[in-house]
UniProtKB/TrEMBL annotation, chain A:
<feature type="domain" description="Acyl-CoA dehydrogenase/oxidase C-terminal">
    <location>
        <begin position="235"/>
        <end position="390"/>
    </location>
</feature>
<dbReference type="InterPro" id="IPR036250">
    <property type="entry name" value="AcylCo_DH-like_C"/>
</dbReference>
<dbReference type="GO" id="GO:0005886">
    <property type="term" value="C:plasma membrane"/>
</dbReference>
<dbReference type="GO" id="GO:0050660">
    <property type="term" value="F:flavin adenine dinucleotide binding"/>
</dbReference>
<comment type="similarity">
    <text>Belongs to the acyl-CoA dehydrogenase family.</text>
</comment>
<dbReference type="InterPro" id="IPR052161">
    <property type="entry name" value="Mycobact_Acyl-CoA_DH"/>
</dbReference>
<dbReference type="InterPro" id="IPR046373">
    <property type="entry name" value="Acyl-CoA_Oxase/DH_mid-dom_sf"/>
</dbReference>
<dbReference type="Pfam" id="PF02770">
    <property type="entry name" value="Acyl-CoA_dh_M"/>
</dbReference>
<keyword id="KW-0274">FAD</keyword>
Automatic annotation (TrEMBL), chain B:
<dbReference type="InterPro" id="IPR009075">
    <property type="entry name" value="AcylCo_DH/oxidase_C"/>
</dbReference>
<dbReference type="InterPro" id="IPR046373">
    <property type="entry name" value="Acyl-CoA_Oxase/DH_mid-dom_sf"/>
</dbReference>
<dbReference type="InterPro" id="IPR013786">
    <property type="entry name" value="AcylCoA_DH/ox_N"/>
</dbReference>
<keyword id="KW-0560">Oxidoreductase</keyword>
<dbReference type="Pfam" id="PF00441">
    <property type="entry name" value="Acyl-CoA_dh_1"/>
</dbReference>
<dbReference type="InterPro" id="IPR009100">
    <property type="entry name" value="AcylCoA_DH/oxidase_NM_dom_sf"/>
</dbReference>
<comment type="similarity">
    <text>Belongs to the acyl-CoA dehydrogenase family.</text>
</comment>
<keyword id="KW-0285">Flavoprotein</keyword>
<dbReference type="GO" id="GO:0003995">
    <property type="term" value="F:acyl-CoA dehydrogenase activity"/>
</dbReference>
Length: 399, 370
């Protein structure tokens, strides 16, 4: 038996013994466990699964053991992932720090920073949020203005961030700050780690058109940050931010496997709400629904092809870059269609005349508008395809 | 389902690419259009294609085939689409070959051996109206003492002029029968000149007498086999369209990179970049549908009907988008005959309508859904 087969056997046995049956199902809304100083469990199996995975050092299975990781090779790590998928194990916790900041710290952090920040991550003790977007900056990330001014032994941070997911519930933030106001805009930016419990930090949830949301606005009023919390070189943050966003994309694709908040079977929901046969809107609705269903099929086949090409060791950068764009746009179209089919029943808001499912669909429809904006808008994705995949020429006038 | 081409498929694709770019480039198709021949394809190139074994790709070894599968065939059709190479591959090998493979008895199989080697060429006659609709044919076959009598009219018979014979589908015994009709002066053949300058015919049968051995398969019971053959044809046509739109897309992207207006390359305009990026996205989605359908064609238990309909539907839609954008982004020169874009546009339009357009396949996909 090869070593890897033996490892697979061990992993399978361990997972079967340690992952409670109740957690071998898709994670419903509201049952995601976010690691951090205030972990909330809704039932005891979650706590047990969280603790077992933590003690096994499998929150970060491939990180070095000296920082609390599991020390697995890339091959072993993919065995673990596939075995977890096979048993349908829920992720024991969700933590942006591990997914996005961790890999950057491992590569660019000082020894001291690695010890200080990585070890608590691997124990699920710190919840991280991402401080990149700013009011008025939008997709133009390099135009951020939140400043960090050198005060000798610390930086003084002033400004604000927006669209910070769970900013109000996080312990720490990895933030892009402007450390040189005079440099060209991509060159005066640094990556700084900020304690969200510091004096002068205030996080405020943002209400969206779909209702309450996890997005926050975060304000910094003379926040003192120790200089040793600067990651990489001073004014070298742009390069790190780009690396971090790459990790974000691959993390998002994994996140999608665990939980697709907007993924649903269009045809079966449509059939719940279709108007009577041969009524005025029926034929048009049916046609649009079939077309949307076929488009979704084309997308699913493309996801399969991406997997097959990756396995065959082919470069699939081009395919990768269309996934977010196509998925979010298709979901939006599907929700529009559902709303069309529901007629007046799709217009309820906190009213018991409308079923829970109806209200949930209405909110999901409203939420679908944010999906084509968040995480790089559709237009940003199109720019990436045009410039990096098709290699169309740059307009020198615009950066 | 295997969603990538194998090494063997790739080698086949490379050979096809090499052969067609040398022997049958777009210029050859343009020449055929300007100086039409009897059948509007190059007989010599066709024979060379068969010598390369292209007729044998999908058939089993005991029939004289290579047992290579439809992914390999798809690679050939994609290359033919890219170079706009006209040949009877679809009509004779894919459509008629598949029907013979499914229905022919030992004696009739000599036709199959002959079309695999290229010794003979057949054409399939199905359509009768302005649209593809194999479920409602009006051509009739009547059983008589020593055979059958055929009456009716067929249109859009692909490569229907001057074949060695036609396979004709007709209403018979309250169902659908298919017959081999060897070439005969008693069949009235009218040549159809279409925008893509290929070989299409309209056939009229007036009390055409057929011998008993003309019947393929069981009387009145061949609709399923016919749809299976048509599905294989549909996915080969989809692969051909994929090759054509890839060529159009690549040409257009190149043009965006070199053409200057307002003092800059037009490819720097975000309005055009985003449209180009959308075309790329759609092209990739289309490619996935084609490769999935090809892969299903090689699998016995697959739902070939719905994956073929999905491929034909998606390719027709994306071909509309990309041929339209190719003309528009080229501007005025895009509508001149001098550029090859028009040749692609016209061929694509015909391929879209052949064997069912997007609306047909959307309705069929919905009807097939569980």
């Amino acid at each position: 038996m090869s070593e890897l087969t033996e490892f697979r056997q061990q992993v399978r046995t361990w997972l079967e013994e340690n992952c409670p049956m109740s957690l071998r199902t898709p994670t419903p809304d509201g049952e995601l466990i976010w690691g951090g100083s205030e972990v909330n469990f809704t039932f005891d199996d979650q706590r047990q699964w969280f603790n077992s995975m933590r003690d096994k050092h499998w929150f970060c299975p491939s990180w070095p053991t000296q920082y609390g990781g599991g020390g697995l090779t890339a091959q072993q790590n993919s065995v673990l992932e596939s075995e977890m998928r096979r048993l349908k194990c829920r992720p024991p916790q969700i933590n942006l720090g591990i997914w996005m900041l961790g890999p950057v710290l491992l590569e660019h952090g000082t020894e001291l920073q690695k010890q200080q920040f990585l070890t608590p991550m691997t124990r699920g003790e710190v919840r991280w949020c991402q401080g990149f977007s700013e009011p008025n900056a939008g997709s133009d990330l390099a135009s951020i203005r939140t400043s960090a001014v050198d005060q000798g032994d610390h930086y003084l941070v002033n400004g604000s961030k927006i669209w910070t997911s769970y900013g109000d519930k996080s312990d720490w933030m990895y933030a892009l700050v402007r450390t040189d106001a005079k440099a060209p805009k991509h060159q005066g930016i640094s990556l700084l780690l900020l304690d969200m419990h510091s004096q002068g930090v205030q996080a405020k949830p943002i209400d969206l058109i779909s209702g309450k949301s996890s997005f926050c606005e975060v304000f910094f009023d003379n926040v003192a940050v120790p200089k040793e919390n600067l990651i990489g070189e001073l004014n070298g943050g742009w390069k790190l931010a780009k690396e971090l966003l790459q990790h974000e994309r691959s993390a998002m694709s994994k996140f999608g496997e665990f939980q697709l908040p907007t993924h649903f079977d269009l045809m079966s929901l449509m059939s719940d709400y279709m108007p009577a046969p041969h009524s005025a809107s029926e034929a048009a609705l049916v046609n649009k629904a079939v077309a949307a269903n076929m488009e979704e099929q084309a997308y699913n086949l493309t996801v399969q092809r991406l997997g097959a090409e990756m396995q065959a060791g082919q470069s699939c950068f081009g395919l990768m870059s269309i996934m977010k764009l196509v998925h979010t746009e298709q979901e939006k179209i599907k929700f529009e269609l559902l709303l069309d089919a529901m007629g007046y029943r799709g217009l309820g808001w906190e009213d018991d005349s409308f079923s829970e499912q109806e209200q949930a669909i209405t909110r999901a429809w409203l939420n679908s508008f944010s999906q084509t904006i968040a995480g790089g808008s559709s237009e940003v994705q199109l720019n990436v395809i045009a410039k990096r995949v098709l290699q169309l020429p740059e307009n020198k006038g615009v950066s | 389902m295997s969603m990538v081409y194998s090494e063997d498929d790739r080698m086949l694709a490379d050979t096809a690419e090499e052969f067609l770019s040398a022997q049958s480039p777009v210029a050859a198709q343009r020449a055929l259009r300007d100086k039409p021949t009897a059948v509007n394809f190059d007989e010599k190139i066709w024979q060379q294609m068969l010598e390369l074994g292209w007729g044998a790709i999908t058939f089993s070894e005991d029939l004289g085939g290579l047992d290579f599968g439809y992914k390999g065939m798809g690679a050939i059709f994609e290359a033919m689409g890219k170079h706009l190479s006209a040949s009877p591959m679809l009509s004779s090998v894919t459509l008629c070959g598949s029907l013979l493979q499914q229905l022919a008895n030992a004696e009739q199989q000599t036709w199959l051996t002959a079309i695999i080697s290229g010794e003979k060429r057949l054409a399939l006659a199905v359509d009768e109206h302005a649209r593809h609709d194999p479920d409602s044919m009006q051509t009739t076959a009547t059983t008589v003492v020593d055979g059958f009598v055929l009456n009716g009219k067929k249109t859009m018979v692909i490569d229907g002029v001057s074949p060695d014979g036609w396979i004709v589908a007709a209403q018979h015994n309250a169902g659908c029968s298919v017959f081999i009709v060897p070439f005969s002066e008693q069949v009235k053949v009218k040549r159809l000149n279409l925008i893509d300058a290929r070989n299409y015919a309209e056939l009229t049968f007036n009390d055409l007498k057929l011998p008993a051995e003309a019947l393929l398969g069981d009387a009145g019971n061949s609709l399923k086999a016919l749809q299976q053959a048509l599905d294989l044809g549909r996915l080969c046509l989809s692969a051909e369209m994929l090759g054509a739109i890839k060529a159009l897309f690549d040409t257009t992207i190149e043009y965006l990179k070199v053409r200057e207006q307002f003092g800059v390359k037009i490819g720097t305009f975000q309005a055009l970049q985003h449209r180009a990026a959308r075309c790329y996205v759609e092209l990739e989605l289309a490619q996935s549908c084609v490769i999935a359908a090809l892969s299903d064609a090689d699998k016995a238990d697959a739902n070939l009907a719905s994956s073929a309909s999905l491929a034909k539907w998606k390719l027709s839609k994306v071909a509309d988008l990309i041929s339209g954008e190719a003309v528009q982004m080229h501007g005025g020169i895009g509508v001149t005959d001098e550029l090859d874009i028009g040749l692609y546009l016209k061929r694509i339009r015909v391929a879209q309508m052949c064997l069912g357009d997007a609306d047909y396949h959307q309705a069929r996909f919905a009807a097939l859904a569980p």
